[in-house]
Amino acid sequence: MGNGSIRDRLTPYDCLVIMIDCQLQFALTIPSMERHRLIRNAVSLAKTARTFSIPTVLTTIGEEAFGGPLFPKLHEVLPEGKLFPRLTMSIWDDDGIVKAIETTGRNRLVMAGVWTDFCVVRSVTQALERGYEVFVVADVCGDLSPQADDDATRRMIQAGAVPMTWLQVLLELEYDPQHKHHNDLYVSVVKEHAGAYGLDIEYPLGSVNARRGKKMTKRI
């Protein structure tokens, strides 16, 4: 379906972010990573999509029965994100979701969610079968056990998906010289969510601002 290659860098113009079942009740069942870290990473990916104006599809399943509501922070970050409740394991079994994906005309899918070995792996492998290039954001995926998460991730990689972290997605997108006007938003996301890398960014910025302050004082 696409003209690119999985070895090509992601750009803000050719990808679509799909976040599958990032719901509170599911998060409570996940021991494969710390729950607060999973939620924080999901929010970081959502902020990345917002920063670069990338279309985003949000899905839920069994919201009122067993899945619980979408992470509230995702609604705050993506108030205009398309939210699709569904009844089946794969997103490709829902005509509304399929139409929303196809309408964007984008062939590179950045996918993540829970549980990894249920809805995520099925949705990813079907996307690959349909000819899409798929990038799985591994640190925004979680499962009922570390082994289940690892096995599902390996299965997706063997099928042709490319594993990434949310920060790798951000850094690839920021490389685009045409999006330098987003630099302040990019720095804001990095400083708030990227741990040691955020500190690495903040330190030189603080030094630069301090030097600028000294120059202004001398002029006055």
Descriptive overview:
By secondary structure, the protein is of the alpha/beta class. The chain folds into 2 domains: 15-169, Rossmann fold; 188-219, no CATH class. The chain has 10 helices and 6 strands, in the order E-H-H-E-H-H-E-H-E-H-E-H-E-H-H-H. The chain has helices spanning 24-28, 35-51, 63-67, 72-77, 95-104, 116-129, 146-159, 166-174, 183-193, 195-219, and strands at 15-20, 56-61, 82-86, 108-114, 133-142, 162-164. Strands 3-2-1-4-5-6 form a 6-stranded parallel beta sheet, sandwiched between helices. Strand 4, helix 6 (116-129) and strand 5 form a beta-alpha-beta unit. Helix 2 packs parallel to helix 8 (166-174) and helix 9 packs across helix 10. The longest helix is centred in the last third of the chain and has 25 residues, at 195-219. Mean pLDDT is 84; it is low at 195-220.
CATH superfamily of the largest domain: Isochorismatase-like
* CATH class value of the largest domain: Alpha Beta
**Helix content estimate:** 40-55%
Output the structural class: alpha/beta
N-to-C order of helices and strands: EHHEHHEHEHEHEHHH
Quaternary status: single chain
Topology record:
Blueprint: E1 15-20, H1 24-28, H2 35-51, E2 56-61, H3 63-67, H4 72-77, E3 82-86, H5 95-104, E4 108-114, H6 116-129, E5 133-142, H7 146-159, E6 162-164, H8 166-174, H9 183-193, H10 195-219
Parallel strand pairs: 1-2, 1-4, 2-3, 4-5, 5-6
Name a few traits of the molecule.
220 residues, alpha/beta, Rossmann fold, 2 domains, 10 helices, globular, disordered C terminus
